Every structure is written in structure tokens, then in C-alpha cells.
Automatic annotation (TrEMBL):
It comes from the Bacteria. This is N-carbamoyl-l-amino-acid hydrolase. Keywords: Hydrolase, Metal-binding, Zinc. The lineage of its organism: Bacteria, Bacillati, Bacillota, Bacilli, Lactobacillales. NCBIfam families: hydantase. Zn(2+) 2 binds at D81, E116, H366. Residues 205-296 form the Peptidase M20 dimerisation domain. It holds the Pfam family Peptidase_M20. Allantoate binds at R204, N264, R277.
Length: 393
């Protein structure tokens, strides 16, 4: 069932998946999931941010046992980041219901609206909203559309579908997120499962370097205030600083914009993003203090923080339970620290949370080449089903 579902929810397009939050592809998929949930007899809720909750009621009252991930992708993303946790979670729940019928505790599948931060300068907006933390800053996408406008246009029609509830469900007793590893370690170690011990601290910024737009042919080199020249020197310096820092630091300049971006005009402004992560907040702060110092030393440069997330240790108790289940199922596993951000790090601030990884072929992710074999995907679903069984039946 999982392979068929993934094919239905992904597009066959060499440029990859482009389900940026609230766009048409995102909306079509959340609607598809709502319909599927209704066919399976779930109670369906769509909250005001567009996260979809499918509740399979238990025979006893009490908090739900939840699983899921996010529906959005990065631009030109892959077929599994986020979606595997949603559809794999649904398959695990359906397998359990087919085999054991009704659970004792409610099983909940969650498809968070947004995790990637790829459309608006904010990430994890879906899981944060579930925890009662709505966005308070006005946010605009590259086309100048506000988060509020996009949200209302996409979410109102979903909430208006028949038999859809709109009140955010109570927080669950536990949350388990199934996800692809997005790196090479499980493949290299020939392991089927990654048991995630924690998730990196992460900070993102926009660096704006100012200059003076001017004529490319008439302005002597010594009289230029070239924003690209300044920005490229700063970028090289930051790469050097990052390389000399903590061994576990990652530093990425992923997007660069030049204004006016014309062949024969010296750039008046150059903006670039910084994404930096490390295993602990303290280690990351060592780097960001150096970043702050570089910027403070240059009046032509401004730094705008766009995301700050603390490092997270996930539930040790749930990891231990999953470790024993992996042993019972004969699945080779390894404990891993995640370098990617996940809804789990938000959920864990309120709910005992754990993550299960499956291998990523060639260790690639956030690109159309992202791939995991059907056999490897199925092993993750099997372990998730065993874990949900232990908790909810
Ligand atoms: C999102 O997946 C991230 O870790 O950047
Ligand atoms: Mn993800
Ligand atoms: Mn991602
Ligand atoms: Mn992520």
C-alpha cells in the first residue's frame, strides 16, 4: 500500500516535489489525505494552520498515541522527506487495525502543515501551532503574499469539507515520527533503523551586504562599492571561521540574491542566507558569536535572525522501547543524532517524543534524487507498527 500511496501523493517530475506550504500541490495532498482518512473511518480534523489529524478512536478514554510528520517539501524536494512519516504512519495504523481491530487508546496520524521554512521565513509553523504557538510576526513569501492570506485561502476550503472538524485536538500522550535519515550513516553501517537520540540546535539568518549600484564600465575599480565583492569576501571568511570551529558544526549559505541582478550594473545589495547547526546550543553559540562580531565590525552589513531552535534530546524511554522491539523484529539498528530539523523537536517540548529513521540511498535528501527502497521503507513501518501496538493496544 505504501508504494502506491507515495505515487499518488508525489508528482512524477524530474524537478522534484514542490509542495511549499499552502500552494496548490500542498492543498491537493492535504485534501487527498482527508478523503483517505474518511474512507478508513477516521475522525478528521483540520486546524487553522492546515495540519490534518486523523483519529482512530480507542475503546478507552484518554490521550491519543500519535505518529506523523509534515506535508510540505523544500523547493525541488524529494518524495520521502515528511511524506514518508505521514503515509508510513497511516500504513502502520491500518495494518494494526486490519490485524487487531480497534485500539485501546486512540491512534492519531498527523500531517503537519509546514516544517521546512521554504516558503515563508519561519519553520515548524504546523507543530508550533499544535502546541499553541501561532506566528506573531507578519511573514511574506518571495511573491509578496502574506502568510495570513495564503493560509486562509488554502485552509478555509479544507475546513469546509464535509465531516471535517476544526478544533485542534488535545495533545497526545506520545509522538513518534518516522523519517528518512537524509544522510549516509545508516547505509554505510548497513543498518535498517536509526533510533534518534537528539536533534541539532539550529539558527538561520539573512545577511544583507550594502553597496552602491553603479555603471559597470565607467566606474574605476577603486571607486566601487560593489555589494557582491563585499559579500563574497565575507562569505569566504565565514567558511574559514566555520571550518576552524567545532567538528560537529555545519554551515551553509544556501541562497544568494543580488540587486539589481543585471550584467552591466555593479550590485547595490547582496543578500545571502546562513544556516548553521551544532550538537549543543553552547557549541553553536561559539560560532554565532563570531558571526555577530564579523557583522558588527562592518557598517555595510546587517544580520537578521530568521530561525532559532535549541538542541533537543528525544525521549530515552521511548528509544529504549523501540530498541527492544527492533531486536525482537531482527532489525539491525544504530543510535543517531539528527542533523536535520524535525517536528519532533517541537513536539518534544510538550510530549514524550521519539524518531525512527530508515536509510537514505547515497545519503542524499532535499533534492529530487532522494530515494529509499520499498524494502527499507517497509522495515520502518514494521517497527513503527510494533511501537504503536505496544502503546495503544
Ligand atoms: C529541514 O528539513 C531542515 O532540517 O532543514
Ligand atoms: Mn522532514
Ligand atoms: Mn526537510
Ligand atoms: Mn526537516
Amino acid at each position: 500500500m505504501l508504494t502506491e500511496l507515495l505515487a499518488q501523493f508525489n508528482v512524477a517530475d524530474k524537478s522534484g516535489q514542490n509542495r511549499l506550504v499552502y500552494n496548490a500541490a500542498w492543498q491537493a495532498n492535504q485534501q487527498r489525505l482527508i478523503q483517505l482518512g474518511q474512507e478508513f473511518g477516521a475522525k478528521v480534523t483540520v486546524d487553522d494552520y492546515g495540519s490534518v489529524y486523523l483519529d482512530f478512536p480507542g475503546s478507552q478514554p484518554g490521550l491519543a498515541v500519535a505518529t506523523g510528520s509534515h506535508m510540505d517539501t523544500v523547493q525541488h524536494g524529494g518524495q520521502y522527506d515528511g511524506l514518508y512519516g505521514v503515509l508510513g504512519g497511516l500504513c502502520a495504523i491500518e495494518q494494526l487495525r486490519q490485524t487487531y481491530d480497534r485500539p485501546r487508546k486512540t491512534l492519531r496520524l498527523i500531517a503537519f502543515s509546514e516544517e521546512e521554512g521554504s516558503r515563508f521565513p519561519a519553520a515548524f509553523t504546523g507543530s508550533k501551532f499544535y502546541l499553541g504557538q501561532p506566528q506573531t510576526q507578519p511573514l511574506l513569501d518571495d511573491a509578496g503574499i502574506s502568510f495570513e492570506t495564503a493560509r486562509q485561502q488554502a485552509v478555509t476550503p479544507l475546513q469546509a469539507l464535509p465531516q471535517v472538524h476544526t478544533k485542534r485536538p488535545a495533545l497526545p500522550a506520545t509522538f513518534t515520527e518516522l523519517h528518512i535519515e537524509q544522510g549516509p550513516r545508516l547505509k554505510l553501517a548497513h543498518k535498517a533503523i536509526g533510533l534518534v537520540t537528539g536533534i541539532v540546535a539550529q539558527r538561520r539568518y539573512v545577511v544583507t551586504v550594502h553597496g552602491q549600484a553603479n555603471h559597470a564600465g565607467t566606474t574605476p575599480m577603486i571607486h566601487r562599492q560593489d555589494a557582491v565583492q563585499r559579500a563574497s569576501a565575507l562569505m569566504t571568511h565565514l567558511y574559514d571561521v566555520a571550518q576552524q570551529g567545532s567538528a560537529s558544526l555545519t554551515f551553509t549559505i544556501g541562497a544568494i540574491t543580488v540587486h539589481p541582478n543585471v550584467d552591466n550594473v555593479i550590485a547595490g545589495e547582496c543578500r545571502f542566507t546562513v544556516d548553521c547547526r551544532d550538537e549543543t546550543d553552547a557549541k553553536l553559540t561559539q560560532f554565532t558569536q563570531q558571526l555577530d562580531a564579523c557583522v558588527a565590525a562592518d557598517p555595510q552589513v546587517t544580520l537578521t535572525p530568521t530561525l532559532t531552535v535549541s538542541a533537543t534530546r528525544l525521549s530515552h524511554a521511548l528509544l529504549r522501547q523501540n530498541e527492544l522491539l527492533a531486536q525482537e523484529l531482527g532489525l539491525p539498528y544504530e543510535q543517531l543524532f539528527s542533523g536535520a530539523g524535525h517536528d519532533s523537536q517541537i513536539m518534544y517540548t510538550a510530549v514524550p517524543t521519539t524518531m525512527l529513521f530508515v536509510p537514505s540511498d547515497n545519503g542524499v535528501s532535499h533534492c529530487p534524487e532522494e530515494h529509499t527502497s520499498a524494502a527499507d521503507l517497509a522495515k520502518g513501518v514494521a517497527l513503527l507498527a510494533a511501537s504503536l501496538y505496544q502503546q495503544a493496544y
